[in-house]
Input
Amino acid sequence: MAKDKKLVKNITPRDENFAQWYTDVVREAELCDYSSVKGCLNYLPNGYAIWELIQADLDRRFKETGVENVSLPLLIPESLLEKEADHVEGFAPEVAWVTHGGMERLQERLCVRPTSETLFCDLWARTVKSYRDLPKVWNQWNSVLRWEKTTRPFLRSREFLWQEGHTIHATYEEAEERTIQMFHVYEDCYRETLAIPFVSGRKAEHEKFAGAQDTYTIEALMHDGKALQSATSHFFGSGFPDAFGIKYIDKNNEPQSVYETSWGWSTRSIGGLIMVHGDDDGLVLPPHVAPVECRVIPIAQHKEGVLDRAYALFDELKRAGYRVKIDDSDKSPGWKFAEQEILGIPTRIEIGPKDIENNQVVVVRRDTREKIIVKMDEIAGKLRDILEVIQQDMYNRAKDFLNAHIDTATELDEMKEKFKQNRGFVKACWCGDPECEGEVKYVTGGAATRCLIEDEEMISDKCIWCGKPAKHMAYWGKAY
RNA sequence: CGGAGUGUGGCUCAGCUUGGUAGAGCGCUACGUUCGGGACGUAGAGGCCGCAGGUUCAAAUCCUGUCACUCCGACCA
Output
């Protein structure tokens, strides 16, 4: 009977109220806490540890491609922000301003960085002189501030942690290549490390980053059928650098423009992890980003020898390189099981008198609850295999879910119907006019283009809204 | 920025209509019994009721203002 019962209280079922479920999981797993400033989070150890693992993985991938880390200021003078017209127009409504230093009013107000393109360009305008100074392939791990009106933990906060990479290159082609290269780094990291599948591609014209010529996006599908823009890579051409007066002298002693890129990945990815993999009992973390891969839970730990054996196992796993913890608190075993599940720890090892007697342990998978009996002297090796299987299975399940929620439509009614019934993405063709997209968004209750599909044959030659010749095929979806 | 709602021990909330000794459950602390799916008993600690005014002999409760947060919209490279 107990098996049929919902094992974890305090978490609203996912299908009953997804938004509430999300909030419950964030709270119960102690990932973050609201601070006294709206939209600014306290990242708690469980949440920050996930970010550290993502950070380490991404940073390694970046450095393999030659990225160098730097740190630029928190504040941007207003005059600097205003140098690129599209950029300032895009960000002006959501920047916060510093107007005073101590008691004195500042001559020029300073905005708290919403992103740092302007700071990088300002620096490069003063320091880049020659083709020998190029390329610059820099990145910073920091936080930025955007004065959002509606905020949600991880998904949309005012201050958020991220990395922002900024590069400049001597040629258009090299910069474009770098944009796509970093886009692929993001794709690999989502797939291999976060076990999150996605659709991806270029953004439509009006959805691009303020000032960008091209924006590449990764769009993951959450369990409620809504898309989450999960990382973006932008190609600026030379518009931005030109506005800042960045020029270099080429081999022929001629001044030339530089070409710029930027790319970012934020703590929003943690929200994606929760909403792609989580279930009614809480968080489910892919092993590669699980701060704790395995929790050892002694059963009947007051009995002679149980705790000693459990500690020995714990030490052995730690020496073998696992991120492992032991729960030797005086809570009941049921409590400990539930807690491990809420936290999303990928495996637990139960070790009790029966196991010790049989020289075995019981490994329980978080994702499937499958119990696997493993001989005591084989566990240090086998656990790695089990974790890898979990990682792979989680990706495959999410991939199946994504595939099952991608549909096509060639007529508007068909599309409306599909958004009414099937959650997810719908492929449809479009003339490229933002007004048509707006109309579609209105009649479907919020579905817009998420990214363009450029490597497949178009399923129709006319726009889903106006019927005029289609320029693009796109994934449409409702988004966070 | 529009609509709605909520501020009372750490958490979830009751009490407010009809003003009169500040409550419950959970959590926390100590001790004891338990221990293979959220155990139980006993004892205990913890609150100027978001803030500021006002009405009153008396305000968590009524009035005015204010601040904050949550949800739904609009907005959101």
